[in-house]
Amino acid sequence: MMLAIKDLKVSFQHGPNNHTEVLHGINLSLNRGETLGIVGESGSGKSVLSLATIGLLPDTAKASGQIIFNGENILTLSERALCKIRGSKIGLIFQEPMTALNPTMKIGNQIAEGLRLHRKISRKEAQIEALRLLEMVKISDAKRKMQSYPHEMSGGQRQRVGIAIAIALKPDLLIADEPTTALDVTVQAEILDILDQLVRDLGIALIFISHDLGVIARIADRTLVMYHGNEMEQGETEQVLRHPRHEYTKKLLLAQPRRTRAAFAATSINLGSFNEK
Amino acid sequence: MKRHIPWSLVIGGTITSTLVIAAILSQFWTPLDPTQINIINRLKGPGEAGFLGTDHFGRDELSMIMSGAWISLGIAFSAIAIGGLIGTLIGATAACKRGRFEAIVMRVVDVLFAFPPVLSAILLAAILGAGATTTIIAIAVFMIPVFTRITRGAALQIWARDYIKAACMAGKSNTQITIEHVIPNISAQIIAQVAIQIGLGILTEAGLSFLGLGIAPPTPSWGRMLADSQTYLSLAPHLVFVPGIAICTAVLGLNLLGDGLRDLTDPKRKQ
To answer: Which residues of chain A lie closer than 8 angstroms to B162, CB-CB?
Structure first.
């Protein structure tokens, strides 16, 4: 197993004797070339889970349990060791492409800076590699885009740049925290295709966090359903969506707009008898 | 993309550049020597002797205003350069370190902020003696808290952005992030503030030399010209208006410039 999370609990400290637990013991595991979808409503602990996995929890948070990544427990690693793993072994894709890029830096330099921090390469080599990455995420006219600033690009293009930065150092694990939520549907489909291809071509493991079951159904091999920091249900995506065992999963499916439900029906994902409830 | 240039920037920029040109010009040429005493021509109105008249020693007002601009701008600019640099550094460090360091620094800055600049100038003058250095230090000390607060507030907003998280992920140190990501993104706000604070610096300098705490005579200074003119208020009222209008215009110009720069760089107001 490349990533195994065992009984992860996270709580936030408000004062000396005052803390709120937001994750109540999450278990999951992930292999190379596999995509795990995490679904849940706002406040269900999806993002805290992803932050814990990359060791970027704020100072006020306390985590217990184990996060074993490539044989090492992330929770007990020193900040220096974490720094090496982050970025080079784990990549992060953000929800909001507007704030994920530095508005005062050229696209090419933003991709190249991570490369130069972790590898001993010259400025020129880094630029060439950055260009290759931009082409990999299918940005048209990549050569010119290297010299442009984030505000000159559309949301979809920015998100592609975000992906290029995340995969720059060939990480083993990619965490995408609602990467398509801020995008319109056609761009969303393109981004999903790119991610899908990266997982297949590079053998990356992907954790895909979303509240959109339609997106999860499309990209995830396995799905974890979360609610209020608890695991509701976990299994093969098809299994989870077709034969939800847990009442909450059924509710989530029912909360989808009717057309999406119709689409599920068309792809023979069975919403069963609770459709009439 | 065509950028709409705010009118405040145009007017403020024009006034400020006129002021700067006049100040620089005074170092090479003034209509008359601003320290040249000419008792026969004393208290002449505008047009009677020189363009703006003469003071109680018969010195040419226009020449004095021009040289005074050099002193005012010079002192205000040096003070803001020192205070702004220190303040920005403290603010950026506080936003970067957070925690107890930030809390202590910000409280110290609050105490500093509570001190009126005139009071600290009197204090400093008692120790160092009145003069340009004292004025610069007094204004700089009073500028530190202003810049610390602005920098910290703006930097905290930037620290919450995802690209900072991404830089963190890439393994950058906090110092690197501050220099490469935070400072460039808040520099526009700081520059706008510099313009406004230079205006305030000019006002404070004039206030201090009005009280006799500024630069020593015979070097012309707007504040002292104003102080001297009080005695001759009924005899030569233009002596009040000339330096008074100079101070008002300079402060107005720099404030407009600062406002214009802020409007230009604030993405929320940009249309």
So the answer is: 94-96, 99-100
Average pLDDT over residues A118-128: 86
B99-135 per-position pLDDT tens digit = 888 999 999 999 988 888 788 888 888 888 878 888 8
User: Taking residues B243-250, what's their average pLDDT?
Assistant: 92
Contact A48, A173 (CB under 8 A): no
This prediction has a pTM of: 0.77
CA pair distance B205, B212, nearest whole angstrom: 10
- Distant-in-sequence, close-in-space partners of A264: CB < 8 Å, separation ≥ 6: A213, A214, A217, A241, A253, A256, A271
What is the model's pLDDT at position B270? 47
Residue carrying structure tokens 């954790």: A207
Spatial neighbors of A68 by CB under 8 A, at least 6 apart, are A1, A3, A4, A5, A6, A74
Q: Is B39 on the interface with A (CB under 8 A)?
A: no
Give dist(CA A250, CA A240) in Å, integer.
9
Helix and strand element counts for chain B (H, E) = 10, 0
In chain B, whose CA is at the least distance from the CA of A84?
A: B171
Is the CB of A113 less than 8 angstroms away from the CB of B170?
A: yes
Q: For the residues A156-175, what does the mean pLDDT come to?
A: 87
- Inter-chain touch A86–B168, beta carbons under 8 Å: yes
What is the reported pLDDT for B251? Answer: 93
Where do the domains of chain A lie, and which CATH numbers do they carry?
A: 3-89+169-275 (3.40.50.300)
Could you give the CA distance from residue A101 to residue B84 in angstroms, rounded to a whole number? 28
pLDDT for res B27? 85
Q: Under a CB-based contact definition with an 8 Å cutoff, are residues A88 and B171 in contact?
A: yes
Query: Is residue B85 scored above 90 in pLDDT?
Result: yes
Q: Give the DSSP H/E element, type plus range, for residue A92.
A: strand A90-93
Contact B184 A84 (CB under 8 A): no
User: Which among B71, B54, B118, B80 is positioned nearest to B217, based on CA atoms?
Assistant: B71
* Residue-range domains of chain B with CATH: 7-265 (1.10.3720.10)
Structure tokens at A84: 């090496």
Q: Does B265 touch chain A (CB under 8 A)?
A: no
Q: Has residue A277 got a pLDDT over 80?
A: no
What's the whole-number average pLDDT of chain A? 83
CB B222 within 8 A of CB B243: yes
